[in-house]
Amino acid sequence: MSLAELQALERSSVIASYARQPVEFVRGEGSHLWDEQGNEYLDFLCGISVTNLGHCHPRVVAAVREQAGRLMHTSNLFYTEPAMRLAERLSSSSLGGKVFFCNSGAEANEAAIKLVRKARRGGDVVVVHGAFHGRTYGALSATPQEAKQAPFAPLVPGFRAVAPEPEALAAAVDEHTAAVILEVIQGESGVHLLSDEALRAARAACDEHGAALVFDEVQTGMGRTGTLWAYEQTGVTPDAITSAKALGGGLPIGALVTGERLSDVLQPGDHGSTFAGGPVVAAAALTALDLTDDEALLAHVREQGGVLAAELERLPHVVSVRGRGLMLACELDVQAPAVARRALLEQRLILNATGPTTLRLLPPLTVGAEEISEALARLAGALEG
Ligand SMILES: Cc1ncc(COP(=O)(O)O)c(C=O)c1O
Predict the structure, then answer these.
(1) CATH code for the structural domain at 3-57+295-384
(2) In a 10 Å sphere around its CB, with 0-12 CB exposed, 13-18 middle and 19+ buried, how is residue 233 labelled?
(3) How far is the C-alpha of 216 from the C-alpha of 78, rounded, in Å?
(4) Domain segments of the chain: what residues?
(5) For ligand 1, is residue 131 a contact (CB within 6 Å)?
(6) Whose CA is nearest to atom 16 of ligand 1?
(7) 1 pLDDT exceeds 90?
(8) Which atom from ligand 1 is nearest to the alpha carbon of 183?
(9) pTM of the shown model
(10) 104 neighbors 252 (Cβ within 8 angstroms)
(11) 71-292: which CATH architecture?
Protein backbone atom coordinates (compact mmCIF):
# COMPACT_ATOMS: atom_id res chain seq x y z
CA MET A 1 0.00 0.00 0.00
CA SER A 2 1.31 3.48 -0.80
CA LEU A 3 1.76 6.19 1.82
CA ALA A 4 -1.10 8.14 0.22
CA GLU A 5 -3.39 5.13 0.62
CA LEU A 6 -2.38 4.72 4.27
CA GLN A 7 -3.09 8.39 4.88
CA ALA A 8 -6.53 8.02 3.31
CA LEU A 9 -7.26 5.05 5.58
CA GLU A 10 -6.10 7.06 8.57
CA ARG A 11 -8.42 9.96 7.66
CA SER A 12 -11.42 7.65 7.28
CA SER A 13 -10.77 5.16 10.06
CA VAL A 14 -8.31 6.27 12.75
CA ILE A 15 -9.16 8.59 15.65
CA ALA A 16 -6.97 11.61 15.06
CA SER A 17 -5.06 11.57 18.33
CA TYR A 18 -1.60 11.50 16.70
CA ALA A 19 0.10 13.97 14.35
CA ARG A 20 2.05 11.46 12.26
CA GLN A 21 4.98 12.34 10.01
CA PRO A 22 4.45 11.40 6.36
CA VAL A 23 6.72 8.36 6.40
CA GLU A 24 5.94 4.65 6.40
CA PHE A 25 8.56 2.33 7.83
CA VAL A 26 8.68 -1.28 6.77
CA ARG A 27 11.92 -2.64 8.23
CA GLY A 28 14.46 -1.98 10.98
CA GLU A 29 17.89 -3.27 11.92
CA GLY A 30 20.24 -1.85 14.54
CA SER A 31 20.29 1.97 14.35
CA HIS A 32 18.54 2.00 10.97
CA LEU A 33 15.00 2.02 9.56
CA TRP A 34 13.89 1.68 5.94
CA ASP A 35 10.80 3.20 4.38
CA GLU A 36 8.58 1.50 1.80
CA GLN A 37 10.69 2.91 -1.04
CA GLY A 38 13.87 1.40 0.37
CA ASN A 39 15.30 4.67 1.76
CA GLU A 40 17.50 4.26 4.85
CA TYR A 41 17.07 6.42 7.98
CA LEU A 42 19.25 6.77 11.08
CA ASP A 43 17.04 6.35 14.13
CA PHE A 44 18.16 8.68 16.94
CA LEU A 45 14.80 8.50 18.72
CA CYS A 46 14.30 4.72 19.15
CA GLY A 47 10.51 4.89 19.08
CA ILE A 48 10.87 7.27 22.07
CA SER A 49 13.44 5.20 23.93
CA VAL A 50 11.92 1.79 23.25
CA THR A 51 14.34 0.13 20.81
CA ASN A 52 17.34 0.87 23.04
CA LEU A 53 19.15 -2.24 21.78
CA GLY A 54 18.56 -1.26 18.16
CA HIS A 55 15.79 -2.52 15.92
CA CYS A 56 15.15 -6.25 15.85
CA HIS A 57 18.05 -7.26 18.08
CA PRO A 58 18.69 -10.87 17.00
CA ARG A 59 18.61 -12.27 20.55
CA VAL A 60 15.34 -10.53 21.36
CA VAL A 61 13.85 -11.71 18.07
CA ALA A 62 14.97 -15.28 18.80
CA ALA A 63 13.48 -15.19 22.31
CA VAL A 64 10.15 -13.90 20.95
CA ARG A 65 10.07 -16.48 18.14
CA GLU A 66 10.87 -19.33 20.49
CA GLN A 67 8.29 -18.34 23.11
CA ALA A 68 5.58 -17.39 20.59
CA GLY A 69 5.87 -20.84 19.05
CA ARG A 70 5.43 -22.53 22.42
CA LEU A 71 2.95 -20.54 24.53
CA MET A 72 1.57 -17.03 24.10
CA HIS A 73 -0.98 -16.46 26.83
CA THR A 74 -2.39 -18.02 29.96
CA SER A 75 -3.50 -15.00 32.10
CA ASN A 76 -2.29 -14.39 35.63
CA LEU A 77 -4.48 -17.16 36.97
CA PHE A 78 -1.50 -19.44 36.33
CA TYR A 79 2.30 -19.54 36.45
CA THR A 80 4.67 -19.13 33.54
CA GLU A 81 8.43 -19.26 33.89
CA PRO A 82 9.36 -16.09 31.91
CA ALA A 83 7.28 -13.83 34.21
CA MET A 84 8.65 -15.28 37.45
CA ARG A 85 12.25 -15.18 36.18
CA LEU A 86 11.82 -11.62 34.90
CA ALA A 87 10.42 -10.46 38.25
CA GLU A 88 13.41 -11.94 40.09
CA ARG A 89 15.84 -10.41 37.58
CA LEU A 90 14.21 -6.95 37.76
CA SER A 91 14.14 -6.95 41.53
CA SER A 92 17.72 -8.16 41.95
CA SER A 93 18.94 -5.54 39.45
CA SER A 94 17.27 -2.70 41.38
CA LEU A 95 15.44 -2.34 44.68
CA GLY A 96 15.32 -5.92 45.92
CA GLY A 97 11.59 -6.02 46.62
CA LYS A 98 8.77 -7.31 44.41
CA VAL A 99 7.34 -6.60 40.95
CA PHE A 100 3.90 -5.93 39.51
CA PHE A 101 3.68 -6.33 35.73
CA CYS A 102 1.49 -4.30 33.37
CA ASN A 103 1.59 -3.24 29.73
CA SER A 104 2.84 0.36 29.53
CA GLY A 105 4.44 3.25 31.36
CA ALA A 106 1.14 4.86 32.26
CA GLU A 107 -0.08 1.57 33.73
CA ALA A 108 3.11 1.17 35.74
CA ASN A 109 2.47 4.59 37.25
CA GLU A 110 -1.20 3.70 37.89
CA ALA A 111 0.02 0.69 39.84
CA ALA A 112 2.45 2.87 41.79
CA ILE A 113 -0.32 5.36 42.64
CA LYS A 114 -2.65 2.60 43.82
CA LEU A 115 0.10 1.03 45.88
CA VAL A 116 1.20 4.24 47.67
CA ARG A 117 -2.41 5.24 48.37
CA LYS A 118 -3.17 1.83 49.85
CA ALA A 119 0.03 1.93 51.91
CA ARG A 120 -1.03 5.29 53.38
CA ARG A 121 -4.78 4.61 53.46
CA GLY A 122 -5.34 7.58 51.16
CA GLY A 123 -3.13 10.64 51.08
CA ASP A 124 -1.87 13.15 48.56
CA VAL A 125 0.58 12.55 45.78
CA VAL A 126 3.20 15.24 45.22
CA VAL A 127 4.52 15.64 41.68
CA VAL A 128 6.69 18.30 40.06
CA HIS A 129 6.10 20.93 37.39
CA GLY A 130 7.01 19.73 33.91
CA ALA A 131 6.47 16.06 34.77
CA PHE A 132 5.03 13.51 32.37
CA HIS A 133 3.74 10.23 33.76
CA GLY A 134 1.26 9.07 31.09
CA ARG A 135 -2.23 9.55 29.70
CA THR A 136 -4.52 7.34 31.78
CA TYR A 137 -6.47 9.10 34.53
CA GLY A 138 -4.16 8.52 37.48
CA ALA A 139 -1.02 9.08 35.42
CA LEU A 140 -2.60 12.14 33.74
CA SER A 141 -3.56 13.55 37.14
CA ALA A 142 0.14 13.21 38.03
CA THR A 143 1.09 15.12 34.85
CA PRO A 144 0.67 18.81 35.68
CA GLN A 145 0.41 20.15 32.15
CA GLU A 146 -2.60 22.34 31.41
CA ALA A 147 -2.95 21.39 27.73
CA LYS A 148 -2.96 17.67 28.48
CA GLN A 149 -5.21 17.82 31.56
CA ALA A 150 -7.75 20.56 30.85
CA PRO A 151 -9.94 18.80 28.24
CA PHE A 152 -10.36 15.80 30.53
CA ALA A 153 -11.44 17.35 33.82
CA PRO A 154 -12.41 16.29 36.40
CA LEU A 155 -9.18 14.52 37.18
CA VAL A 156 -8.34 12.19 40.06
CA PRO A 157 -8.23 14.30 43.24
CA GLY A 158 -5.30 14.57 45.62
CA PHE A 159 -2.42 15.44 43.29
CA ARG A 160 -0.30 18.50 44.00
CA ALA A 161 2.45 19.92 41.77
CA VAL A 162 5.42 21.82 43.16
CA ALA A 163 8.65 23.20 41.73
CA PRO A 164 11.37 20.54 41.33
CA GLU A 165 13.49 22.37 43.91
CA PRO A 166 14.77 21.19 47.32
CA GLU A 167 12.83 23.74 49.40
CA ALA A 168 9.55 23.21 47.51
CA LEU A 169 9.80 19.43 47.78
CA ALA A 170 10.68 19.54 51.46
CA ALA A 171 7.75 21.86 52.19
CA ALA A 172 5.25 19.82 50.13
CA VAL A 173 5.47 16.60 52.15
CA ASP A 174 3.63 16.07 55.42
CA GLU A 175 1.87 13.28 57.31
CA HIS A 176 -0.96 13.29 54.72
CA THR A 177 1.40 12.64 51.81
CA ALA A 178 1.25 9.17 50.27
CA ALA A 179 4.15 9.71 47.89
CA VAL A 180 6.39 11.95 45.89
CA ILE A 181 6.53 10.72 42.29
CA LEU A 182 9.09 12.16 39.90
CA GLU A 183 11.40 11.55 36.96
CA VAL A 184 15.10 11.87 37.81
CA ILE A 185 15.46 13.37 34.33
CA GLN A 186 12.26 14.68 32.79
CA GLY A 187 12.04 13.27 29.27
CA GLU A 188 8.91 14.56 27.61
CA SER A 189 9.45 18.09 28.88
CA GLY A 190 12.81 18.18 27.08
CA VAL A 191 15.45 16.35 29.13
CA HIS A 192 15.49 18.41 32.32
CA LEU A 193 17.67 17.02 35.10
CA LEU A 194 16.47 17.31 38.67
CA SER A 195 19.35 18.25 40.96
CA ASP A 196 20.74 15.68 43.39
CA GLU A 197 19.87 18.21 46.14
CA ALA A 198 16.21 18.14 45.08
CA LEU A 199 16.21 14.33 45.07
CA ARG A 200 17.88 14.25 48.50
CA ALA A 201 15.34 16.74 49.85
CA ALA A 202 12.48 14.61 48.56
CA ARG A 203 14.07 11.50 50.11
CA ALA A 204 14.54 13.20 53.49
CA ALA A 205 10.99 14.62 53.52
CA CYS A 206 9.48 11.23 52.63
CA ASP A 207 11.54 9.54 55.35
CA GLU A 208 10.53 12.13 57.93
CA HIS A 209 6.81 11.81 57.22
CA GLY A 210 6.52 8.15 56.24
CA ALA A 211 5.69 8.86 52.58
CA ALA A 212 6.97 6.81 49.66
CA LEU A 213 9.45 8.12 47.10
CA VAL A 214 8.72 6.76 43.61
CA PHE A 215 10.97 7.36 40.61
CA ASP A 216 9.37 7.07 37.18
CA GLU A 217 12.16 5.36 35.22
CA VAL A 218 9.97 4.66 32.19
CA GLN A 219 12.23 6.75 29.95
CA THR A 220 15.43 7.04 32.02
CA GLY A 221 15.69 3.34 32.85
CA MET A 222 17.06 0.36 30.92
CA GLY A 223 20.50 1.87 30.41
CA ARG A 224 19.43 5.11 28.77
CA THR A 225 21.55 7.36 31.03
CA GLY A 226 24.60 5.07 31.27
CA THR A 227 23.56 3.01 34.29
CA LEU A 228 20.79 0.43 34.25
CA TRP A 229 18.61 2.82 36.30
CA ALA A 230 19.11 6.58 36.42
CA TYR A 231 18.74 6.70 40.21
CA GLU A 232 22.05 4.82 40.55
CA GLN A 233 23.89 8.02 39.56
CA THR A 234 22.06 10.26 42.03
CA GLY A 235 23.00 8.78 45.39
CA VAL A 236 19.28 8.58 46.24
CA THR A 237 17.43 5.26 46.41
CA PRO A 238 13.65 5.42 45.93
CA ASP A 239 11.07 3.10 47.53
CA ALA A 240 9.77 2.05 44.10
CA ILE A 241 10.52 2.56 40.43
CA THR A 242 8.34 2.24 37.36
CA SER A 243 9.63 0.90 34.07
CA ALA A 244 8.27 0.31 30.55
CA LYS A 245 9.43 1.51 27.09
CA ALA A 246 12.75 -0.33 26.49
CA LEU A 247 11.99 -3.01 29.06
CA GLY A 248 10.37 -5.28 26.45
CA GLY A 249 13.10 -4.88 23.82
CA GLY A 250 10.41 -3.46 21.48
CA LEU A 251 7.33 -5.23 22.84
CA PRO A 252 4.85 -3.64 25.28
CA ILE A 253 5.47 -4.38 28.93
CA GLY A 254 5.54 -2.23 32.05
CA ALA A 255 6.58 -2.94 35.60
CA LEU A 256 6.38 -1.47 39.07
CA VAL A 257 9.36 -2.57 41.16
CA THR A 258 9.31 -1.97 44.90
CA GLY A 259 11.86 -2.03 47.65
CA GLU A 260 11.30 -4.28 50.68
CA ARG A 261 9.07 -1.82 52.56
CA LEU A 262 6.33 -1.69 49.92
CA SER A 263 6.57 -5.20 48.55
CA ASP A 264 3.56 -6.69 50.36
CA VAL A 265 1.12 -3.76 50.22
CA LEU A 266 -0.88 -5.05 47.24
CA GLN A 267 -2.66 -8.32 47.93
CA PRO A 268 -4.83 -10.68 45.80
CA GLY A 269 -7.72 -8.75 44.26
CA ASP A 270 -6.13 -5.30 44.68
CA HIS A 271 -4.89 -4.86 41.13
CA GLY A 272 -4.45 -6.82 37.92
CA SER A 273 -4.36 -6.91 34.14
CA THR A 274 -5.22 -9.74 31.74
CA PHE A 275 -2.14 -9.49 29.53
CA ALA A 276 0.36 -8.34 32.15
CA GLY A 277 3.65 -10.23 32.19
CA GLY A 278 2.55 -12.58 29.42
CA PRO A 279 5.15 -15.17 28.42
CA VAL A 280 6.13 -13.62 25.07
CA VAL A 281 6.73 -10.09 26.36
CA ALA A 282 8.37 -11.45 29.51
CA ALA A 283 10.75 -13.61 27.43
CA ALA A 284 11.60 -10.56 25.32
CA ALA A 285 12.14 -8.43 28.45
CA LEU A 286 14.30 -11.05 30.13
CA THR A 287 16.57 -11.04 27.09
CA ALA A 288 16.54 -7.23 26.82
CA LEU A 289 17.40 -6.90 30.51
CA ASP A 290 20.25 -9.44 30.22
CA LEU A 291 21.67 -7.54 27.24
CA THR A 292 21.30 -4.12 28.87
CA ASP A 293 22.57 -4.97 32.36
CA ASP A 294 26.06 -5.26 30.97
CA GLU A 295 28.88 -3.03 32.19
CA ALA A 296 30.56 -2.90 28.77
CA LEU A 297 27.36 -1.63 27.13
CA LEU A 298 26.68 0.87 29.93
CA ALA A 299 30.26 2.20 29.72
CA HIS A 300 29.74 2.56 25.95
CA VAL A 301 26.58 4.61 26.63
CA ARG A 302 28.46 6.94 28.98
CA GLU A 303 31.37 7.30 26.57
CA GLN A 304 29.36 7.79 23.37
CA GLY A 305 26.95 10.08 25.23
CA GLY A 306 29.91 12.30 26.14
CA VAL A 307 31.16 12.31 22.54
CA LEU A 308 27.72 13.08 21.12
CA ALA A 309 27.06 15.88 23.63
CA ALA A 310 30.44 17.51 22.93
CA GLU A 311 29.98 17.30 19.16
CA LEU A 312 26.42 18.64 19.30
CA GLU A 313 27.76 21.75 21.09
CA ARG A 314 29.82 22.54 17.99
CA LEU A 315 26.93 22.50 15.52
CA PRO A 316 25.51 25.76 14.14
CA HIS A 317 22.38 27.06 15.92
CA VAL A 318 23.00 24.84 18.97
CA VAL A 319 23.01 27.11 22.02
CA SER A 320 23.43 24.43 24.70
CA VAL A 321 23.26 20.67 25.27
CA ARG A 322 21.98 18.87 28.37
CA GLY A 323 21.33 15.33 29.47
CA ARG A 324 23.09 12.21 30.72
CA GLY A 325 24.35 9.19 28.82
CA LEU A 326 22.42 8.88 25.57
CA MET A 327 19.43 10.93 26.79
CA LEU A 328 20.25 14.34 25.36
CA ALA A 329 18.58 17.59 24.32
CA CYS A 330 19.86 20.61 22.39
CA GLU A 331 18.59 24.11 22.87
CA LEU A 332 18.53 25.90 19.49
CA ASP A 333 18.34 29.53 18.37
CA VAL A 334 15.99 28.43 15.55
CA GLN A 335 12.66 26.57 15.53
CA ALA A 336 13.21 22.94 16.57
CA PRO A 337 10.06 21.42 14.97
CA ALA A 338 11.18 22.67 11.55
CA VAL A 339 14.69 21.27 12.11
CA ALA A 340 13.29 17.87 13.18
CA ARG A 341 11.07 17.79 10.10
CA ARG A 342 13.94 18.67 7.74
CA ALA A 343 16.13 16.10 9.49
CA LEU A 344 13.50 13.42 8.85
CA LEU A 345 12.37 14.31 5.35
CA GLU A 346 15.56 15.72 3.83
CA GLN A 347 18.40 14.12 5.81
CA ARG A 348 16.73 10.88 6.91
CA LEU A 349 17.68 11.36 10.54
CA ILE A 350 15.01 10.64 13.17
CA LEU A 351 14.88 12.76 16.32
CA ASN A 352 12.14 14.91 17.82
CA ALA A 353 11.31 18.41 19.02
CA THR A 354 9.98 18.54 22.58
CA GLY A 355 9.39 22.30 22.48
CA PRO A 356 9.71 25.32 20.19
CA THR A 357 13.52 25.39 20.48
CA THR A 358 14.35 21.99 21.97
CA LEU A 359 15.52 18.90 20.07
CA ARG A 360 15.67 15.53 21.87
CA LEU A 361 18.05 12.73 20.90
CA LEU A 362 17.58 9.17 22.18
CA PRO A 363 19.85 7.02 19.99
CA PRO A 364 20.24 3.27 20.50
CA LEU A 365 22.56 2.34 23.36
CA THR A 366 24.41 0.22 20.82
CA VAL A 367 25.08 3.17 18.48
CA GLY A 368 28.51 3.11 16.85
CA ALA A 369 31.00 6.00 16.58
CA GLU A 370 30.55 6.12 12.79
CA GLU A 371 26.78 6.29 13.14
CA ILE A 372 27.17 9.22 15.54
CA SER A 373 29.41 11.04 13.02
CA GLU A 374 26.89 10.36 10.27
CA ALA A 375 23.98 11.59 12.43
CA LEU A 376 25.89 14.78 13.28
CA ALA A 377 26.51 15.44 9.58
CA ARG A 378 22.83 14.90 8.80
CA LEU A 379 21.75 17.12 11.71
CA ALA A 380 24.15 19.85 10.55
CA GLY A 381 22.44 19.68 7.14
CA ALA A 382 19.02 20.04 8.74
CA LEU A 383 20.18 22.93 10.94
CA GLU A 384 21.56 24.80 7.94
CA GLY A 385 18.15 24.43 6.31
C1 LIG B 1 8.64 9.29 32.15
C2 LIG B 1 7.47 8.68 31.47
N3 LIG B 1 6.50 8.10 32.21
C4 LIG B 1 5.43 7.53 31.65
C5 LIG B 1 5.27 7.52 30.29
C6 LIG B 1 4.05 6.87 29.69
O7 LIG B 1 4.42 5.68 29.10
P8 LIG B 1 3.41 4.96 28.06
O9 LIG B 1 3.34 5.83 26.86
O10 LIG B 1 4.04 3.62 27.82
O11 LIG B 1 2.10 4.85 28.76
C12 LIG B 1 6.24 8.11 29.47
C13 LIG B 1 6.06 8.12 28.01
O14 LIG B 1 6.67 8.87 27.30
C15 LIG B 1 7.37 8.70 30.08
O16 LIG B 1 8.32 9.29 29.35
Answers:
(1) 3.90.1150.10
(2) middle
(3) 29
(4) 3-57+295-384, 71-292
(5) no
(6) 219
(7) no
(8) 1
(9) 0.98
(10) yes
(11) 3-Layer(aba) Sandwich (3.40)
